[in-house]
Task: inverse folding
């Protein structure tokens, strides 16, 4: 009888260990990275947002991340960031006036607390076209949108730092179609510049224009990419891998 009980207990232990190992293999652990995509707009609404959300949802599934998407600014007040590792600001624009800004008071304090507590931020394309009356937001992003030349011409990109998860698998030089941003208040000494656009390749002056960068900011990690204006961007493997690497870096999964 005693041997039978011991055998039963050993069997249960083996089942529990096997189950735990299976969960770990499937990525189902307490350490799963939690990604929140926020895409509310009060300024220009990009039609790339919806395909971007879907592409990020698929990316999360493939990488074993928890995923949530929202366009409700009240989530910042409701404590959603307490359960988030990486906040993706997906072309989340505002207008130029204070009353257009979707983060105020408690929402601003929540975002600052999230970053200062070690949270990661991934800002995509028009996330730089927001909160013009909140200097801290501009500092967090690393610059602010200033203008873009007309249309979506083919532009030549150069990876200037290929030792970052967001650029590691990209070609050193490549050409793609997008809307190309120019920025104000960009200070290369404050960020890690990752990728530039050759302005001459789209018929403009300006030399090498910054297109992607990262920096550690007030305790958190912030990655910005200007890519992602067109719907087609979110079906381009290079763009998706670029953003995936940015998320992985912001979450502290890759360096």
Result:
């Amino acid at each position: 009888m005693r041997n039978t009980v011991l055998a039963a207990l050993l069997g249960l232990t083996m089942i529990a260990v096997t189950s735990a190992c299976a969960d770990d293999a499937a990525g189902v652990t307490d350490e799963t990275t939690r990604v929140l995509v926020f895409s509310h707009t009060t300024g220009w609404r990009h039609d790339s947002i919806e395909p971007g959300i879907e592409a990020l949802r698929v990316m999360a599934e493939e990488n074993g991340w928890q995923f949530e998407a929202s366009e409700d600014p009240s989530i910042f007040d409701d404590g959603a960031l307490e359960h988030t590792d990486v906040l993706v600001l997906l072309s989340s624009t505002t207008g130029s006036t204070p009353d257009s800004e979707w983060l105020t008071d408690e929402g601003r304090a929540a975002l600052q607390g999230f970053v200062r507590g070690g949270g990661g931020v991934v800002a995509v394309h028009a996330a730089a076209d927001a909160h013009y009356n909140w200097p801290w937001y501009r500092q967090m992003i690393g610059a602010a949108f200033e203008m873009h030349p007309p249309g979506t011409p083919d532009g030549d990109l150069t990876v200037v730092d290929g030792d970052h998860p967001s650029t590691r698998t990209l070609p050193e030089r490549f050409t793609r179609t997008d809307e190309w941003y120019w920025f104000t208040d960009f200070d290369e000494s404050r960020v890690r510049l990752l990728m530039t656009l050759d302005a001459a390749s789209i018929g403009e002056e300006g030399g090498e224009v910054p297109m992607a960068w990262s920096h550690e900011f007030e305790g958190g990690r912030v990655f910005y990419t200007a890519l992602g204006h067109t719907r087609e961007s979110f079906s381009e493997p290079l763009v998706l891998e670029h953003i995936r690497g940015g998320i992985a870096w912001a979450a502290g999964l890759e360096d």
Remarks:
- The domain at 33-250 is CATH 3.40.50.880 (Rossmann fold).
- The radius of gyration is 21 Å.
- The mean pLDDT is 90.
